[in-house]
Design a protein that fits this description.
eight-stranded mixed beta sheet, 2 domains, 21 strands, seven-stranded parallel beta sheet, Lyase, Ornithine Decarboxylase, Chain A, domain 1, single chain, TIM Barrel, alpha/beta, 382 residues
Length: 382
């Protein structure tokens, strides 16, 4: 165990006979902020909740996030595949697991055996699950996925009502839910409203709210910005992790992850000196330069190079100089005379918003979060 900032962390693989060195880069994950953001989702829509914890809970740590949220009165955890479902169960989490996408034939026996809940996108899936459930002597709870415009999976909306009678003959399936997905709720309100209308129309043709115990359509943008009255379940993702896809709701959320590192070296370089690979940046004056122990090998993307990116040191923004390398970056600390080896640096978090970093990198916060690599230690508090 290693004491750092008042907290204890475990450093795996370090001999007990050798002092453990602190991590060069780490991500602080505030679980109390995570629970707060879950409460914002619940208040915004008044629905039951399926937190989306795929991709390692958006890089925050699948097992830790699932354990933290299980006691908050949720109905499902949403995952991308059986590997993630397996990890949740191995973590001792008992909340129902919902598979958000189509499944391979080789995965389905395990899904039946573990009583995970799949969504059905095709008659082939439905028939196979029914056969496997019959062989196991069980009735498997499933949801029908309807494609209202995403184009990624689900029964095409116009053809689904004609297929329901056949689906209803599958005696070993319990069709308890109807779901869909919104591809552009944060970008195209008109199209999203049409999706809600299509979903509600299909729901009506299939028997209405009485026919399906669970009806769900909205991810974070959908539950924050739209009326979900036909649904009783929502799937918050990004907002749980402190970022609103709709800017007007950002001030209601709390930062969950802060990516941090330390200064490893401070030097003064003369005017005309190159910094980092390719010498994209040349000093135009004597410059106090701090080297920091993080790089694209940790998920601090190379696309942040030469984009006006800043980091936070001693209460000040400090500009990134030159290219991000695999393990290190350099920043200008001329305005921070107290900066010294070992000082903490925030790459994003409470002072440098991850949305700002994503914009400078030409990407989205989802990719920044999920790109933080395993060699970055996760430290949990709250």
């Amino acid at each position: 165990m290693l004491a750092r900032g008042g907290a204890l962390i475990t450093v795996a693989g370090v001999s007990v006979s050798v002092p453990a060195s602190p991590p060069r880069a780490w991500a602080e994950v505030d679980l109390s902020a995570l629970r707060h953001n879950l409460g914002v989702a619940r208040e915004a829509c008044g629905c039951h909740l399926m937190p989306v914890v795929k991709a390692g809970a958006y890089g925050h740590g699948l097992e830790e996030v699932a354990r933290a949220l299980e006691a908050e009165g949720i109905e499902f955890f949403g995952v991308a595949n059986v590997g993630e479902a397996r990890r949740i169960r191995h973590a001792g989490v008992k909340t129902r697991v919902y598979l958000l996408g189509a499944t391979w034939a080789e995965e389905r026996a395990e899904i039946v055996a573990q009583d995970w809940t799949p969504c059905l996108s095709s008659m082939e899936e439905a028939l196979h699950f029914n056969e496997l459930a019959a062989d196991a002597g069980v009735r498997l709870k499933v949801h029908i996925s309807v494609d209202t415009g995403m184009g990624r999976g689900g029964f095409v909306a116009a053809g689904l009502p004609a297929l329901l009678p056949e689906l209803d003959t599958l005696e070993h399936l319990v069709i308890e839910g109807l779901g869909s997905h919104l591809p552009s709720a944060d970008e195209d309100r008109e199209f999203t409203l049409k999706q809600f209308a299509v979903f509600e129309g299909v729901l009506g043709e299939l028997g209405g709210v009485e026919r399906f115990h669970w009806r769900h359509l909205s991810s974070s943008a959908g539950l924050l910005g739209y009326d979900n009255h036909a649904c009783n379940l929502v799937r918050p993702g990004l907002l749980l992790y402190g970022v609103s896809p709709l800017p007007e709701f950002q001030d209601r959320l709390k930062t969950v992850m802060s990516l941090k590192s330390r200064i490893t070296l401070v030097r003064t370089l003369p005017a005309g000196h190159g910094v980092s690979y390719g010498r994209d940046y040349i000093t135009d004056r004597p410059t106090r330069v701090a080297t920091i122990g993080i790089g694209y090998g940790d998920g601090y993307t190379r696309h942040l190079s030469n984009r006006g990116t800043e980091v936070w040191i001693h209460g000040q923004r400090c500009p990134l100089l030159g290219r991000v390398s695999m393990d290190q970056i350099m920043v200008d600390v001329s305005a921070v005379p107290e900066a010294a080896e070992g000082d903490e640096v925030e790459l994003f978090g409470a002072y440098i918003p991850v949305a700002e970093i994503a914009k400078k990198a030409g990407t989205i916060p989802w990719e920044i979060f999920t790109g933080i690599t395993p060699r970055v230690t996760r430290v949990y508090r709250g």
